[in-house]
Structure formats: structure tokens, C-alpha cells
Design a protein that fits this description.
The complex is a heterodimer. Chain A is α+β, with helices and mostly antiparallel strands. Chain A is built from ten helices and seven strands. Classes of the chains: A alpha+beta, B mainly alpha. Strand 2 of chain A pairs antiparallel with strand 1 of chain B.
Chain lengths: 246, 273
């Protein structure tokens, strides 16, 4: 057991402060274990959202030493010596201590036109080949921890919540747009309502994703390219008209 | 106990962060690398001398549309330029550099490249300088206003593909000196240059999209299945796009430096001729 110091932000939307706690940390502990120990020993009213402790529910998102991370997937021995600073997510309104209100994300999800499948085959089935769904299955790994939304500077620093839906919903759009059975066209909305042009490809969303989804390379950039197909590439537009859309 | 009035302890001034790692190192090295390599290549384009050491042609000037007929040491011979010597109307304040023509396509390709966008947005524009670090607190419009031209990357790709043909040609042409087959260090530098630039170009996000990424169904017909195969190979290169971006950039500079030193007579080319 080794003593470690934590500086945890305590407060609500009206203000607050960093409060220092010292606890003994055991081998193999993760940051969420430490928060639970602090709740048990020092601050029973410390608010922290958590659920699975296995990196699959996406609840315990927080900023550890300034980086958006999952508390349950951040091992203590991966952190440098010295005090460990823990903050709530910056991008979303604070509720209390480490808990933020992430409902804005669910509102964005509702804005996205849902899956609209093509007609069934003559035998009454929908068939997809594995190679056609491999791409979109990557996006289904998303656990909605919203770390990508938190680190995206468009939302985090520039508060452009009205212009850009954020990386999480760009990959939601990608998963629908690339789906082999989907017939809905979302390209115009992607440009005009969901803000593909607001992303400047600095890839922080990809860096923080605990599921290692290629958010930028496999989701956002392909969507930007589909917007280019429609609005910025007359050659592609012309060839599509002549030879059919491919 | 340290107090804070900022909600969540998040300060909003430039470069504010509670990160404890050396987050500044990445953008600093990137800025240094970009300044060094693009600075060197820009100087070489304007200097326009010692770009030819028979049979090697520097990629900084290839393919040459015009070449100076006289007054430039180590210039590309007039019979190797597509349209011969620079015309009389060429402005006197500009050096007679073949690098002002087709090689500009390579600059456009790199300048609008999705990888380089990350690199220079972080290193120079600080939007943001690093993840979780507050960027420049200025009005931000992303790539919707002035930077909307980034959408022209696809056209830059078309230009880069055109250029690539001639860079491979230069590599194979470097096997022949005065009609005699052979090879030298420069031959392999030029072939390596074309190879690395091919890896960089065919890993381009726009290429990956055009070649197959734009399809929703890879199994629908024979053409789509063939495109899936190419898309997968492009995806492999795309996953290493940053590495190829830097290796190919450094290799262009290295190849040019070697040819210029041979052209000056500062070093002797090891070859079989």
C-alpha cells in the first residue's frame, strides 16, 4: 500500500474548489477504486457516476490529470508520481462534483434521421454480407462515454453545440450512411445541420476513445468526403450522372 | 486545498490545462519539422541551381516545364524540359525555377492533406495545441469559412497522382546515362522517393474514399468486390499515413540534397557507369 494524494474538484454549477484527499492505494487499483475509497473514508457526499467498473458502460468519464479518461480503466500505476487531479468533464453542464449533465448528447441523437431499410428480398429477408458490415461494426463498439465529445475543442473550447453534433454523432452518422441496407440520404444534413465543416481533424477524439474506434479516419473524414462528393467535386458529380452513382 | 472559481476547475485562458505530461513536445517537434523541411524545400525551389546531376533530376523541379538556358549552375538541360528554355516574358524578379510549375501540385497536396491539417492546426494555429489544452480563444469557424478550400484536397490528389507518374519515370530514367545502363546511389534515392510518395499518396483519405470507401455495398457486383480489395490495401497505408507523410517529405529533401551535392562536385556519386 502506498499513500497517494488526490485533488478532486468539489462543487456545483455555482462554484467550487479542489479538495485534497490522501489515501493508501493498493496494487492493481484504478482511479475509480480510489474515488470509492475516498467516498468511504473521507467524503461520503462526493458525487461520481459509475456502473460497470469494466470500461463498458461509459459512466465514469472524468478528467484525470487534465486528460479525459474513464476512471475504471485508468490504472494508478500508469499515472506519474505526485498529486492526481480529478475534474468533471468540461464540455457539459456540471451537476455536482464529478457528475455532469450529458443529456445534450441524447438530444443530438434524436435529430439524426433513423435507419431506413431498403425493401426486403423476394424471399422476405434482408441479407448482408460480412464484408459490407465490417466497417459499421467498428462504430457499434461505442459505449457512449462521451470522452470524444468532451475533448473535441469545437464543443469544449468554442461551445459550438448549435453548429456541430460532435465526434460521437459523426460516427453514428457514419454507421448509418455506410450501412448496406440503409436508403436514407443524410449528406445535406451532415453539412448544413450536423456541421462536418466544423471539425478540423485534430484527432483528439480518436486519441481518447477507450474503445479505440478510428473516429477520425474511419468516421469523420469519410463523412467529410461524402460531403465533398456532393458539394465540392463537379467531376465526381458528372461521372455519377453519366455512369450512375457509385 | 487550492480554491478555484472556474466551474469544474477548468480555466479558459490560452494553453490552460492540468495535464502533467509534456503535451507541448509534440506540437513543438511538429512545428520544427515542418519549418525545417518545408523551409529547405522552399529555399531550393527559389534557389533553382544544382538540381541536375546527369542522369539524376531533383524532385524539387520535376517534371520541368521550362528550364533556364543559361546563368544557372547545375540546371536541368534544355532538352529535358517539356517546353524548353524559359520564355522571354518570364518576370525578371522571379528566379527561373522549374519548381514553380508542376511541383506546386505536391505542395497543394500536402497543404490540404488530412494528416498535415492536424499537424499544422495543432502546431501553428493552436486549435487546439494538444488534446485537453485550451486553444487560441479567437472566433472559430472550422473549415466552413476561409478554410473551406480544404475541401479541394481531392483536386490536389488528382495533381499528385499526375506528378507521381513523372517521379517514377525519373527513377527509371536514372538507370540510363548517355544511353548506357547502370545505376548509382542517386538511382536508388529517386526510386525510394517515388516509392515513399506512392505509399503516402495511395494512403490518402481522399484516394481511400474514391477507390472504395464511398461504396455502401462491397459485395453487390464484381467491380465493387475488386474495389474492396484495393480499399483494404489503401486502408493499410492510410493507417500509416502520418509515418509516410514524414518519411516521404524527408526523403524528398534528402534526394534533393544528394543530387545538389553531386551536382556541385562536393561529393562523388557511387555508380556503375
Amino acid at each position: 500500500m502506498a499513500e497517494r494524494t488526490f485533488r478532486i474538484w468539489r462543487g456545483n454549477k455555482d462554484g467550487g474548489e479542489f479538495v485534497e484527499y490522501k489515501i493508501d492505494v493498493g496494487p492493481g487499483w484504478v482511479v475509480l477504486d480510489c474515488i470509492h475509497r475516498i467516498q468511504m473514508q473521507h467524503a461520503t457526499d462526493l458525487a461520481c457516476r459509475w456502473n460497470c467498473k469494466a470500461g463498458k458502460c461509459g459512466s465514469c468519464s472524468m478528467e484525470i490529470n487534465g486528460k479525459p479518461r474513464l476512471g475504471c480503466m485508468t490504472r494508478m500505476n500508469s499515472l506519474p508520481d505526485g498529486p492526481i487531479t480529478i475534474q468533471p468533464l468540461k464540455t457539459f453542464p456540471l451537476v455536482k462534483d464529478l457528475v455532469t449533465d450529458v443529456k445534450w448528447n441524447y438530444e443530438q441523437n434524436k435529430r439524426i434521421p433513423p435507419f431506413k431499410p431498403k425493401a426486403r428480398n423476394a424471399d422476405g429477408t434482408h441479407r448482408m454480407m460480412q464484408e459490407d458490415v465490417d466497417r459499421v461494426q467498428e462504430f457499434r463498439k461505442c459505449i457512449e462515454c462521451f470522452l470524444c465529445q468532451d475533448v473535441c475543442h469545437v464543443l469544449r473550447d468554442h461551445k459550438a453545440h448549435d453548429q456541430f453534433v460532435g465526434p460521437r454523432f459523426m460516427i453514428r452518422l457514419a454507421s448509418l450512411e455506410m450501412h448496406p441496407l440503409d436508403t436514407e440520404d443524410r449528406v445535406e444534413k451532415m453539412r448544413k445541420e450536423f456541421g462536418t465543416g466544423w471539425c478540423n481533424i485534430t484527432r483528439c477524439c480518436t486519441e481518447v476513445c477507450p474503445e479505440h474506434i478510428g473516429i477520425t479516419d474511419n468516421g469523420i473524414i469519410p463523412m467529410k468526403e461524402r460531403v465533398v462528393d456532393r458539394y465540392f467535386d463537379p467531376i465526381a458529380w458528372f461521372l455519377g450522372k453519366v455512369f450512375g452513382k457509385k | 486545498m487550492a480554491s478555484s472559481t472556474a466551474i469544474g476547475g477548468h480555466q479558459d485562458n490560452f494553453a490552460a490545462t492540468l495535464r502533467t505530461d509534456r503535451w507541448w513536445l509534440g506540437p513543438t517537434l511538429t512545428a520544427a519539422g515542418l519549418i525545417a523541411f518545408f523551409g529547405y524545400l522552399t529555399i531550393r525551389v527559389f534557389y533553382a541551381q544544382y538540381v541536375w546531376a546527369d542522369p539524376y533530376m531533383s524532385p524539387v523541379v520535376s517534371p520541368p516545364l521550362f528550364t533556364p538556358a543559361a546563368g544557372y549552375k547545375g540546371a536541368v538541360p534544355v532538352n529535358h524540359a517539356w517546353l524548353g528554355a524559359f520564355p522571354a516574358w518570364w518576370p525578371s524578379f522571379l528566379p527561373k525555377s522549374p519548381g514553380f510549375f508542376f511541383p506546386v501540385l505536391a505542395i497543394m497536396f500536402r497543404a490540404t492533406c488530412y494528416y498535415y491539417r492536424k499537424a499544422y492546426y495543432r502546431a501553428f494555429a493552436a486549435t487546439p495545441p494538444a488534446c485537453g489544452v485550451r486553444g487560441v480563444p479567437l472566433k472559430y469557424r472550422g473549415e466552413t469559412a476561409l478554410l473551406i478550400f480544404q475541401n479541394l484536397h481531392r483536386y490536389a490528389l488528382y495533381g499528385a497522382l499526375f506528378l507521381l507518374v513523372f517521379l517514377w519515370w525519373d527513377g527509371f530514367a536514372a538507370f540510363f546515362k548517355n544511353g548506357k545502363f547502370g545505376f548509382g546511389v542517386g538511382t536508388f534515392l529517386l526510386l525510394g522517393n517515388a516509392f515513399l510518395l506512392s505509399c503516402y499518396t495511395f494512403g490518402c483519405h481522399s484516394w481511400r474514399h474514391l477507390i472504395g470507401g464511398k461504396l455502401d455495398c462491397f459485395s453487390c457486383d464484381a467491380q465493387s468486390r475488386a474495389r474492396l480489395g484495393v480499399w483494404k490495401k489503401s486502408s493499410w497505408l492510410n493507417a500509416r499515413h502520418m509515418q509516410f507523410a514524414w518519411f516521404s517529405l524527408a526523403w524528398v529533401a534528402l534526394t534533393d540534397l544528394y543530387i545538389s551535392l553531386v551536382s556541385m562536385g562536393a561529393i562523388k556519386d557511387l555508380n556503375t557507369w
